From TrEMBL:
May bind long-chain fatty acids, such as palmitate, and may play a role in lipid transport or fatty acid metabolism. It holds the Pfam family DegV. GO terms for molecular function: lipid binding. PROSITE patterns: DEGV (PS51482). The keyword Flavoprotein does not apply. Gene3D superfamilies: 3.30.1180.10, 3.40.50.10170. This is EDD domain protein, DegV family.
Length: 290
């Protein structure tokens, strides 16, 4: 068995994972009202340019799942390199059609006898997907069977949590998720909505706070609860909408408060940033395979 791994671009893979010859990616994209298409990326200069434009756009750009044709191209490339098995990890099916498209194409190739596959719904996005991929590769390289590894990663999916604090309510208005009047009142009283990825894969309201300091206090209480639950074996991820300095300060704060806990920090890719907007920041709480 020769295994290849597929993730989508929202996973924000680090350079080491992205450079692996057995790791392949398909890309989401963002389309502006004028028809300009911006391919999802982790390139920092491109991300800064994207968020600068996003902050000036009257109409929120639309995010799109990877083109089915790209998935076919990636699978053909995988087969040409001698791989016979694929483990694919994708953005949650509750917020994107990426998982469903992957299942359609992968099942077609399996029916044709071209390869076998295992498909994991991350029930989230961003750095938790990166973590799931890293854990998957580590287990496979330890000699754990594919079936057992997938089972273990799916357990991680159930135990992982994502929360997002939206700094500018107008992005929720532009996305049709909040009335303009509510945004005005929310901005007036400095209300910052907190949303989370629920068990059914949908993004739902979690809490409302009025200041960034309250957001941080909420983050800390959620982290401490998870540390107790998982005996301190935990990874934290902070993904943001173009507030790198603030995100780095949070990382230092959490690493000082919780010694031994790894904290990953970086941008939300454009396909995610259009929904949270400039200034948003998310918290990922991710355990390890025990």
């Amino acid at each position: 068995m020769k295994i290849a791994y597929i993730v989508d671009s929202t996973a924000s893979l680090n350079d080491e994972l992205a450079a692996r010859s057995d790791v392949f990616q398909v890309h989401l994209s963002v389309t502006y009202k004028d028809g300009t298409i911006f391919k999802d990326t982790t390139d920092e200069a491109s991300l800064k340019s994207f968020y600068q434009r996003l902050g000036t756009e009257k109409d929120i750009p639309k995010s799109s799942q990877p083109q089915v044709g790209e998935y076919y191209e990636v699978l053909d490339q995988i087969i040409s390199h001698g791989y016979d098995t694929v483990i694919a990890i994708h953005i949650g099916s509750g917020i994107s059609g990426t998982y469903q498209s992957a299942e359609m194409v992968l099942s077609e190739y399996k029916e044709e006898g071209k390869l076998d596959y295992y498909l994991i719904d991350s029930n989230g996005t961003s750095f938790i997907m990166e973590h799931f991929l890293q854990q998957t590769i580590e287990q496979i390289e330890k000699g754990v069977s594919v079936e057992e590894t997938v089972k273990q990663v799916e357990a991680l999916v159930d135990d992982s949590r994502i929360y997002l604090a939206v700094d500018d309510l107008n992005y929720l208005v532009k996305g049709g998720r909040l009335g303009a009047g509510s945004a005005f009142i929310g901005s007036l009283f400095k209300i910052k909505p907190i949303v989370y990825f629920a068990e059914d894969g949908k993004v739902k309201p979690y809490d409302k706070v009025r200041t960034k300091s309250r957001v941080i206090k909420l983050w800390e209480s959620l982290i401490e609860e998870a540390l107790n639950k998982f005996n301190g074996k935990l990874k934290i991820a902070i993904a943001h909408g173009d507030i790198p300095e603030e995100a780095e300060q949070l990382k230092k704060r959490f690493e000082n408060m919780y010694p031994g806990v790894t904290c990953r920090v970086g941008y939300l890719t454009p396909a995610l940033g259009v929904h949270g907007g400039v200034g948003c920041h998310g918290l990922g709480i991710i355990p390890y395979i025990s």
